[in-house]
Amino acid sequence: MDKRKSKMQIVYDFFKSEIESGAYLPGELFPSEAHISSQFNVSRPTIAKAKNLLREQGFIAKKKGYGTIVASNKQLNKKQELKFGVLIPSIGATGIFGPIWGMIADRSSSNGFSLIVNEENFSLMWGRGGVNSEQNGKNAELLAKKYAEEGVDGIFFAPLELIDDSDEINQKVVEICTDAEIPLVLIDSDLVDYPESSEFDVVGMDHVEAGFTVAKHLLKNGAKKIAFLTAQNVARTIKMRIVGVKIALEQAGLPSDSLSVIETRWARDDESIELLKKVDNVDSLICFNDTPAATLIPKLIAEGYSIPHEFKVIGFDDSNYAELLKIPLSSFRQPCEAIAESAVKLLLNRVENPDLPPRKLWIKGELIPRESTFAGDV
How many Å apart are CA 366 and CA 318, to the nearest integer? Predict the structure, then answer.
């Protein structure tokens, strides 16, 4: 390689010369990033910069359903509306994904993009086999392939959770999109455990701060021993909330055994109560979302737990039924509108600037105290 030139410039000059010489003809598929990386021994970010420059100068263009091709000026200058896909295989797992999807759709026309939503895509996006069904994993892969075939310009992707092979499925989805050169913005969760970061943009609630705030609220209301109810194959965001709870207890000077993490199956209320009984002196329960909290409260009362005077319960997401329960449920509200707005901006910016470093945007949520945790004393 010519050491006087940057690696990006060498790649750019080579393909510019090849296209100008006719070695690559208009409409021909441009070499993949893996091929270019092997040929020149350069990183993908370097290749992305070179391709971006070639695209800006009219040498290559993206063709829907194919990928990057050698372009004619006519092809490049024809402005097309951006088309984005939504891929939320666990959309029924909590109350937040439906509203976020709706808010993203509301912003499509005013931000110069449309969502690819037909009957089949919509069915795949929502899933067919229940909240934590393996069918949702198959749906996720099928929809990712459909989006690649349809040549979407970007995808809003909420990584799959709550099934045994969710990590493998998420990786397959990412590989399908990466091979098709489709940029992704991850909604709510990254693909790796906190504090690690993936190579993709992520936007969601600040889950560490949420866990910290919930624990501080309980401590202020007299809590000394907290149990955190989680589930098998739980989302990485739940683990972040547990980190926040631990920080709050540490700052309060409480010992490490002031927190007990209880892992159970989704909606297995009886199992949750039996596990809770095994924790000595527990006086507060944090549920990973509102659903188990709402179903557990009447069963806890039947078991003799005095809520909220001697035992406190709090959830996450501030579901629409939280304040309607016999004992209104304290909860931590997710900033759905801000997440949707930020996701749109991130994906539009990523399409325009594919070589930017990955960005992680964690947005502050809001504690909604109610009677289940002595809300009147806050």
Answer: 9
